[in-house]
Amino acid sequence: NAGVTQTPKFRVLKTGQSMTLLCAQDMNHEYMYWYRQDPGMGLRLIHYSVGEGTTAKGEVPDGYNVSRLKKQNFLLGLESAAPSQTSVYFCASSWNGTGNTEAFFGQGTRLTVV
Amino acid sequence: AQSVTQLGSHVSVSEGALVLLRCNYSSSVPPYLFWYVQYPNQGLQLLLKYTSAATLVKGINGFEAEFKKSETSFHLTKPSAHMSDAAEYFCAVKPQGGSEKLVFGKGTKLTVNP
Predict the structure, then answer these.
(1) DSSP H or E stretch at residue B1
(2) Is A45 in CB contact (< 8 Å) with chain B?
(3) Mean pLDDT for chain B overall
(4) Is A98 in CB contact (< 8 Å) with chain B?
(5) Strand B64-68 relative to strand B73-78: parallel, antiparallel, unpaired?
């Protein structure tokens, strides 16, 4: 059981380039999330999805887009990367978003924008 | 908006000593509460969660947390630290009433000295 898998694990981009981060979960979870982690800032929610075909903005959505075409996949896109987007990105999923349902996390993608 | 405060970005203890990591939440209605651990270069793993069934919650690896409504706190403790406990610990909250979003504190990095 793989859980939550993120690809790639590392990436270096030049300013202005685009890329897509892929998150896949095999637990049949309804909810999926993208967070970014920066030193001293904890994890901040970028976008999330409450089901296939739905997306919503989180705390820091600017400069990112997402899609949830299939229930098991949640894609995070950077259309024109900026150095401020250098971060570690985590995908998470949960059965639903209510109550004390916990989220399961992937291993992270370390992105550097130069 | 719901927020969570972790007092102390770095905590250092000796092996065998008590571990105490502090977490306070901001709402008057107790939210759902979680503690996650992140080992170096890994994703987040659930340590424990508050379910309202009991104020003292036991988690994995000997950790426990006590919910104190009067103090709006959910501090994490372990009686005797082990070298393998060195990691970053995150407190997270999810407001009661149907919010899908998990809000994280900024994290506390625990160092265990031999």
Answers:
(1) none
(2) yes
(3) 91
(4) yes
(5) antiparallel
